[in-house]
Amino acid sequence: MKYLIGFVATLLLAASSGLLVILSGAFNVAATNPDSQMTEWLLHTTMRRSVAMRSSAIVAPQSFTEAQVRAGFKEFRAMCAGCHGAPGKMRSAAGKGLRPRAPDLALAAPEWTNANLFWIVQNGVKMTGMPSFGPTHDEQTLWNIVAFVRQLPNVTAEQYRALEDESVAAGEHEH
Ligand code: HEC
Predict the structure, then answer these.
(1) Mean pLDDT over residues 52-57, rounded?
(2) How many Å lie between the centroid of ligand 1 and the Cα of residue 126?
(3) Which atom of ligand 1 is nearest to the CA of 98?
(4) How many CA atoms lie within 13 A of 88 on its CB side?
(5) Has residue 168 got a pLDDT over 90?
(6) Which of 156, 174, 154 is nearest to 165 (CA)?
(7) Is the distance from CB of 85 to CB of 91 less than 8 angstroms?
(8) CB of 47 closer than 6 A to ligand 1?
(9) What is the 3-state secondary structure (H, E, C) of 130-168?
(10) pLDDT higher than threshold 60 for residue 174
(11) Domains in the chain: ranges and CATH
(12) Does any ligand 1 atom lie closer than 6 A to the CB of residue 84?
């Protein structure tokens, strides 16, 4: 009984000090304030485990066609490059101010399978600013995006610029 009272008292103390931090405004939500390593670890590990579990049933193509990669480039330029940056391209002002930062996908993509990437783009990541594109794009378009992101580590700044020039020549505007 004594132990139980001690246990409940400890729990109540922990809960009320947590509540105190919340209600007093002590936690700094400023996006200019870097996350502690602990917060970073918590967020990223939760995200990695969640993505791995949830994307395990997705059947992904093993390879993509050149046409898919090109179609994916257009989506990437319009919807991803602002936050994530692109070969030879800086992030937009909004992308620079994001916390957590949207990682350079040329570096991050190799850590994920095609199914993982599809899931992330389709569903987004809560509490980070990574939007879900599933509500607004069909699966075929989402796979095209995955096709391009998969190629990103091999795309040089010159090649990226050439793809942009081709789009401009074809009359496609940045949006
Ligand atoms: C509004 C900003 C924003 C846009 C637009 C955006 N992202 Fe993100 N994205 C983020 C942020 C922030 C994270 C970091 C999430 C984290 O740290 O858990 C992220 C994470 C990711 C990740 C996981 C990377 C990793 O290893 O942590 C992938 C993959 C990704 N985004 C792909 C895309 C693609 C593809 C698009 C375009 C279709 C896109 N994102 C558009 C902000 C954005």
Answers:
(1) 96
(2) 11
(3) 12
(4) 11
(5) no
(6) 174
(7) yes
(8) yes
(9) ECCCCCCCCHHHHHHHHHHHHHHHHCCHHHHHHHHHHHH
(10) no
(11) 43-169 (1.10.760.10)
(12) yes
